[in-house]
Description:
By secondary structure, the chain is α+β, with helices and mostly antiparallel strands. Among the domains are: about 80-115, no CATH class; about 115-245, Coagulation Factor XIII, Chain A, domain 1. It is about 25% helix and about 35% strand. It has six helices and ten strands, in the order H-H-H-H-H-H-E-E-E-E-E-E-E-E-E-E. The chain has helices at about 1-5, 15-35, 45-65, 65-70, 80-85, 95-105; strands at about 120-125, 135, 145-150, 155-165, 170-180, 185-195, 200-205, 210, 220-230, 235-245. Strands 1, 2, 4, 7 and 8 form a five-stranded antiparallel beta sheet that branches. Strands 3-10-9-5-6 form a five-stranded mixed beta sheet, with no helix packed on it. Strand 5 and strand 6 (about 185-195) form a beta hairpin. The termini are far apart. The model is unreliable at about 1-15 and about 35-65 (pLDDT under 50). Its main location: cytoplasm.
Amino acid sequence: MSLIVGAVPSCRNMGFDDDKEAAEDKRETLEKKATHPEESDDDGGGKIGSRQMSESSFYATEDDDNDDEHRTSIQLGPQCTLKEQLEKDKDDESLRKWKEQLLGSVDIDNIGETLEPEVKFLSVSIVSPDRTDIVLSIPEDGNPQGLWFTLKEGSHYRLKFSFQVGNNIVSGLRYTNTVWKTGVKVFSTKEMIGTFSPQLEPYTHEMPEETAPSGFFARGSYTAKSKFLDDDNKCYLEINYTFDIRKEWASGP
């Protein structure tokens, strides 16, 4: 029995061990490159690619935070006022009907001779099922003096805006809001309101429902800045204000 075993050439003598070792070395090299791309000899491509992706993600976040400041408008060539648009081809019945369908219920008497739309915000209301609506007047300079309103902690509420549009169509009207507590930004949001044609009757728009934070650390005074801008990044109103979150709603209307 021992003679048979001794007579059989070893795997190493036949070259199988050499092949196995070479395969193992190759496998280890590939695994090393896969897990440590920065050690690759391919001109450092893995390392550079990884760093660029990380930096791109960071700068994308920064751009999101400053989107309103860096937004640029696209020039579409010569423009004309809404009144000029309506008066063009007014003898063409089909075209006139198409324009009426496109523009909706435009108040002809409220159309100006300028390209720039006029948007005037009349009031902001806080709507909550827990109490009557809180109607907040907006000062001309957009800076309410003192405490503007108080929210009850944990309450569900919506913001409702009332505004008028004149002269021309306002496109892509949106709302941004940033809140700070003791100088630290704690909340930021952006919401699309929509596109509106000029009319004498005020528009009313309600935002999605929000829930006020609750707890000992949530209660206190906050400062905030709200903006209303359009697609061209034109700001129609900026409100800088303070508000409180307390255990109960403030007394009063």
